[in-house]
Amino acid sequence: MRRNGDRWPTMDLLRSEPMQLAQLIIPIESAYRTISYLGDLGLFQFKDLNADKSPFQRTYAAQMKRCGEMARKLRFLREQMIKAGLLTSTRPLAGTDVNLENLEVKLGELEADIIEMNANNEQLQRTYAELSEYKLVLQKAGEFFHSTKSIAAVQQRELEVQSLGEGSIDSPLLLEQEMVMDPSKQVKLGFVSGLVRRDKSAAFERILFFVEEPIRDPVSGEKVEKNVFVIFYSGERAKNKIVKICEAFAANRYPFADDTGKQFQMITEVSGRLSELKTTIDMGLLHQASLLQDIAHQFEHWSFLVKKEKSTYHTLNMLSIDVTKKCLVAEGWCPVSATTQIQNMLQRATLDCNSQVGAIFRVLHTEESPPTYFCTNKFTTAFQEIVDAYGVAKYQEANPGVYTIVTFPFLFAVMFGDWGHGICLLMATLYFIFREKKLSNQKLGDITGMIFGGRYVIMMMALFSIYTGLIYNEFFSVPFDIFGPSAYACRDLSCRDASTQGLIKVRATYPFGVDPVWHGTRSELPFLNSLKMKMSILLGVAQMNLGIVLSYFNARFFANDLNIRYQFVPQMIFLNSLFGYLSLLIIVKWCTGSQADLYHVMIYMFLSPMEDLGENQLFVGQKFLQVMLLLLALAAVPWMLFPKPFILKKQHEERHKGQQYAILHSIDDPLEMDLRPDSHGHEEFEFSEVFVHQLIHTIEFVLGAVSNTASYLRLWALSLAHSELSSVFYDKVLLLAWGFNNTLVLIIGIIVFISATVGVLLVMETLSAFLHALRLHWVEFQNKFYEGDGYKFQPFSFTLLSEEDE
Prior knowledge:
The protein is of the alpha+beta class. Helix content is 58%, strand content 7%.
């Protein structure tokens, strides 16, 4: 692009890749292979040229249906493997080249085989369950009849001794009928035997026996508790009624002979059949498990082939077909740098298909905004996703992701600063980094997968936390003399009351970070409060200035002089006249050791700018400088608000002066004329909308300059909270347990300390600091320059196929 020139070279992440709209004219005979090769390359985003057609009206609808059917069969096979408790193999199979036609036939055969196996197994299981119930009925009912006959024989001998006797109420019905009645008038009773669910058996009149263990129901296949029943009846009518009742209660009826010999023979036959069925079922299940195991080894490979085939035909359906020229026309976006690679793929497809006509690649000129594409690697991808979660960068807009790589983990570490906690965080993330090759091929859970994806972000956060922890001189809240002895010493022995009043400086200033003598003193909290609060303001003003500077580079890149003159310049003046001046006062106060009250200086800079500063004066000419900065800040507000809308209005009027009439173009189609934005001379310009937009933008920046600066004080607040929590856990848990001189108490104290440190400081505080750093980047930093209204480059790529894509 000419705007870049030699003076403005693009960087890999600062500006997105230059894109171009390209047209491909592909012969039909090489279309499939061409699209497949472009999918392997993964650098071409196709546009749907058949958006007005339904899926069934497209050219390759039949092939899509075939792929959908294969995907359905694969889902069926996956369900069967999950039911069998098998896992698919993620290891690539060496030398496996499967033809799609053969795979389609094989999947059909496998589905038919498994369906047949399931049906046979279901039938065998049902038969086995029925025979098991039958065997149970034979055993329980046989026991009943045998015991009844034994009791009847005893009672008959007793009746023979007694000439007159009354029938016992406990006598069996059959025997009682035979003894009381005249043999010529005896009625033979029939009986029905079977099993009924135990929860339904209460409705039966007489329950004789129950099954101790649950048995498998032949119909439902579930294990349920059942009762064996024997119901006696007299007459065919009663039998029909009993049969209907049994059917209503879903009771299974089985034939039973009252002859003991036949009962034994039937039990033997049923037991033999059960043994044969058990062997057959086991062999069938073993064969099915072996078949599913073979499928599991190749399933992922087959699944990828089907997804690849389906995505290829889905892409082919996005191409327009020219029947007369026997070719397909594709349009889409690709990086300019990928032109040679795409042309090589087109030539390769032509040669491999032995096509007489090669594919044509040509660049189209368009006013459409291209997609945004950044070349990222495994380290920068996670940082770029943090930015993209807020909004995808506009085409070739300055990308905050470049600076986020450093500023995001650094601001996190400012809030999390403890080099002991940083080492723990680093050790945890190094586990994911060292095992990334193995873990990348595994299916991780949602939280584990999220941590693994951001492993390099966490690593940078841990490294910066170690750095800021060394500055704060905190190792689990304990200070160390790592960089030399303290610069202060006791004036005498009476200064051991933890007061800096009794300390004198005896050596050079502690070379790096906070002097360890501050920890544990009465002035520790006021000192760290002042230090971290001022440091937060300095970091916030620096990052907001960086955002405004990036808005200048955006305006310069897109040749927008209005934004430079009437947005960048007044914003820099306004922000630095107030909070840049405050940052200057903080640095001067640190360097001079002055006791000036900066709150008083900033408040009376607005309330009484002409008042004498007195003891709050930090340098000569401060009062004059304050008045000048205040006037500049007040002048910057109308500078941002008024000029830009009126200049835009004037430019619009000059651009269309003398063009009250439409210009005639050599266009035959009036619809095409309507689509041209400048074909009628005047384009839409609403001055009120432009002015209101500029007013909102100005108010947002002016108020945001104050609120955003205050927002950076969260760095101070969270850093202080983290330090105090760590100190409480160390003093009130670990040291308290140590003071009891009891091993058990000490072990409990160590466990509680580790649990609190991991749960609160390494998990909750990490998440809290992460979210606050995210807020500072999205709101306070990116809103100064980042529009984020672009859309991602989504090329057709086989490597992007996921499991959910069907």
